[in-house]
Write a structure and sequence with these properties.
Largest sheet: 9 strands, mixed
Number of strands: 11
CATH topology: Aminopeptidase
Oligomer: single chain
Radius of gyration: 17 Å
Number of helices: 6
CATH superfamily: Gcn5-related N-acetyltransferase (GNAT)
CATH class: Alpha Beta
Helix content: 25-40%
Strand content: 25-35%
Distance between the termini: 36 Å
Structural class: alpha+beta
Shape: globular
Length: 228
């Protein structure tokens, strides 16, 4: 299931070290983002603040997927690291708009009968709907744009695609919806919530108790068995 941590609660949970090493293994060792390489094998940056949202997909403590959301009304990657990909254009920076970064899943892994890459994307959509996050700013490859559009996200390019550090990147504004979540459910075979919210978890926008958008948990389908 997908766990939600905000800021220092990640450290308190005991997941922080596993998250930093998971990020390093994938983004540095797997994808070759050498600028992020650290001698201790822990990938973390100045944006891992008390306001950062960490979404951790795990199976009995073993991390299988991860995403980070950053508030756009504070410092984030598009504002402070590569603003040039916007070509001087403005983009929404509001408390209900977050930047979606560091999204990665363990290739080939499944959880609850579902590919973890699908469960992670579904969980991000469900978390946004649960928290009242209206849109995500994403700097991504056009392939993700096609995936989101095919799952009924409302996607608007914010600038023309450009090559950044050897990769094609386009900044987009992507809005989830109940229709998009239902599309993810149908496509991935998910039949309930994939969020696992700790007791007392607070909504990052309102500060009130966070309530899952879907009121029943996903359960792996039971295989049908026939007897001769």
């Amino acid at each position: 299931m997908l766990r939600y941590f905000k800021g220092s609660s990640l450290q308190a949970s005991g997941f922080a070290e596993r998250v930093w090493r998971f990020r390093h293994r994938h983004f540095v060792e797997r994808f070759g983002w050498e600028a992020l390489r650290k001698p201790d094998g822990r990938e973390m940056d100045i944006f891992d603040t008390d306001e950062a949202i960490h979404l951790v997909l795990d199976n009995e403590g073993v991390i299988l997927g991860y995403s980070r959301l950053l508030a756009t009304n504070a410092a984030h990657l598009l504002s402070d690291v590569y603003p040039e990909i916007m070509g001087g254009r403005d983009y929404p920076r509001e408390k209900s708009v977050y930047e979606w970064t560091r999204c990665v899943a363990e290739p080939g892994a499944t959880l609850g009968g579902v590919e973890v890459s699908h469960m992670l994307l579904t969980g991000v959509a469900e978390f946004c709907l649960s928290a009242g996050i209206e849109a995500l700013i994403v700097e991504t490859h056009p392939k993700l744009v096609n995936l989101l559009v095919s799952n009924l996200w409302e996607v608007t390019p914010l600038a023309t695609p450009m090559v950044y550090d050897g990769s094609l990147v386009v900044p987009i504004h992507a809005s989830p919806s109940s229709a998009a979540l239902a599309s993810h459910h149908r496509g991935a075979g998910i039949n309930g919530s994939v969020l696992e919210l700790a007791a007392g978890a607070l909504n990052p926008i309102t500060g009130e108790t966070l309530i899952a958008f879907v009121d029943r948990a996903h359960r792996e389908p039971i295989a049908q068995v026939s007897y001769a």
